[in-house]
Amino acid sequence: MNTGAGSSAQEPHRDIPEATVARLPVYLRALTSLADRNIASCSSEELAAAAGVNSAKLRKDLSYLGSYGTRGVGYDVDYLSYQIAREIGVTHDWPVIIVGIGNLGQALANFSGFSSRGFRTVALLDAAPQMQGRSVAGLEVRPFADLAEIVAAEQVSIGVISVPAPAAQDVADAMVEAGISSILNFAPAVLNVPAGVDVRKVDLSIELQILAYHESRKAAEAEETVDNDSEEGITA
Amino acid sequence: MNTGAGSSAQEPHRDIPEATVARLPVYLRALTSLADRNIASCSSEELAAAAGVNSAKLRKDLSYLGSYGTRGVGYDVDYLSYQIAREIGVTHDWPVIIVGIGNLGQALANFSGFSSRGFRTVALLDAAPQMQGRSVAGLEVRPFADLAEIVAAEQVSIGVISVPAPAAQDVADAMVEAGISSILNFAPAVLNVPAGVDVRKVDLSIELQILAYHESRKAAEAEETVDNDSEEGITA
DNA sequence: CCGAGTTTGTTCTCGCAGTCACAAAGTCCG
DNA sequence: CGGACTTTGTGACTGCGAGAACAAACTCGG
Ligand SMILES: NC(=O)c1ccc[n+]([C@@H]2O[C@H](COP(=O)([O-])OP(=O)(O)OC[C@H]3O[C@@H](n4cnc5c(N)ncnc54)[C@H](O)[C@@H]3O)[C@@H](O)[C@H]2O)c1
Ligand SMILES: NC(=O)c1ccc[n+]([C@@H]2O[C@H](COP(=O)([O-])OP(=O)(O)OC[C@H]3O[C@@H](n4cnc5c(N)ncnc54)[C@H](O)[C@@H]3O)[C@@H](O)[C@H]2O)c1
Fold first, then answer.
1. A contacts of B182 (beta carbons < 8 Å)
2. Do A82 and A100 share a structural domain?
């Protein structure tokens, strides 16, 4: 490793598993919460509880970043926060654009949680003429045609899609064309993008349907238990 | 199997893997889209493409529900749609309540996609006095104190939390107390709930941070390639 | 009725992820 | 200074999920 490039600072361990990457932001938030309560250090057990995960899993996850804890003591909250933030890449702010300023887009634009977590909304775009020039969350809504110009000017690499499903693919294509390489998609549509572009999907209906599945199973089980409450003895 | 209970109709194969459950709604949506285009039947290959998954994975997923396809032909769109909907439990509508009618809560209340996918918003609740009595999406905002009453009256088992993070645990506790057993949580907080209660989390900041991680890795890789574009030859 | 063609359902293999358990490494007190 | 205690970091094990490949089953044309 480190075969001579040495371009950036302390090269961290590469190849962090996806499952771990998905949890690092959770740890970061838990650490921030601890720091807000003036807690300077914590054990893996405490942090795991705050993040809602198994402590062994947490330690293993952190070990992918390096050895930032002290045996017998635990982790320094500020130090570990910084290391995770650095690994994720949120030590500096990422510019983000939102396309589709309807119900959801406006809620997202008004959401303060983005800016506090390493992201800065730099532009809101919408295709509808009646949206043009309106001010949402202190930003002027701009025409969708300005996409490429804005992306180039602000060095945007992350785009949020909150347009109706039929328009999502077109918007995604335009984003990719403009140079965006990470997309957060709220539209219930499957997006086709070239390799090298990451898409993450947030789909409320799917989440609710998953809950509904478990809910029906619970209901079915309860009914069964009423029918004959000794079944587990038979099948086992 | 089928050790004598046989309470409900054709008992399907039990123990559907979580990963499959999470994809069934995607298949259902793809099927609905096909039906809208008057397509009566489709092969696993076509459906897989529409859902954005591998066809072998799709067939395996569907096989957990039973054998609803015809070899040499494919799947009947309507029939398969119904079978998946039945398995998920969205053949009838589920009543849902939303707690926290701020930016996000209002967007959710106004979202028509819920009702069309097996869910019906029956009540909007908020603790703030100035929200009381306001009408959002045709529903009157009701006081948070009415939670238990509403849940009992409407047989609600699914609740949506869109309050600020510090209030989320309190709301969740009240929901569980009122009899809700499935929660969709938008607040960036870890919820502690008793066993038997399902919680699913939707966290935008986390999604963006995951994108940011891959984005920084892309950036680092590009830089490295510029530094010395024959590195793969050295390390390999 | 039969054979060619098509597509499902399933088996097998491999890799990733979660959990346990423990040695290594540090702290702290006597 | 040394030993008891605490907590990390990691190796081993297990189970789930993804994907390839193939046999079984069905259709359709002749
Ligand atoms: N509202 C919610 O709570 C919610 C929840 C989950 C998912 N969604 C999804 O998010 C998306 C947006 O939902 P919404 O409720 O905000 O819808 P909306 O109709 O209120 O807003 C959509 C906006 O996108 C704009 N738009 C349409 N086509 C466009 C294009 N080609 N380019 C640029 N802008 C375009 C429209 O002008 C409109 O302002 C939908 O796909 C919806 O399914 C919404
Ligand atoms: N707005 C977004 O796009 C967005 C995105 C992601 C996550 N979130 C999260 O969703 C939650 C809501 O966001 P928002 O932007 O709608 O906030 P908001 O402040 O606009 O709305 C919160 C609402 O909850 C109500 N509330 C507060 N405490 C309550 C309680 N104990 N019981 C009942 N109601 C209560 C408030 O009166 C207010 O109406 C936050 O946790 C936020 O982090 C929002």
1. 211-212, 214-215
2. no
